[in-house]
């Protein structure tokens, strides 16, 4: 084989093998800002088994314009875990259609880096602040 053929073959192998590893590292080391949540029917995140779970994605649209409705529940309490938000996300007990401001109804905030924990609120929607 010629030197240019060998060089091209090695470069192709390296490029193809590096791509999946880089993508996996991005997923594991941050990736999309999100928080994992488990929903409970009781008001205290157990000891009953959780009823449903989801991953809340931080919106790139800030405020009410980026409001998203929760499509399951509502459940009495939520345990938030594995938080890698870069902005504060606010969860409401009202659907987006009933929000008139970023302080409507009852709400809880999950800040970037906030420790995991149980929150008692029947979540219906969320926004990024």
From TrEMBL:
Q: Which domain of life is it from?
A: Eukaryota
Give the signal peptide, or none: 1-18
Identify this protein by name: Uncharacterized protein
Per UniProt, which keywords does this protein have? Signal
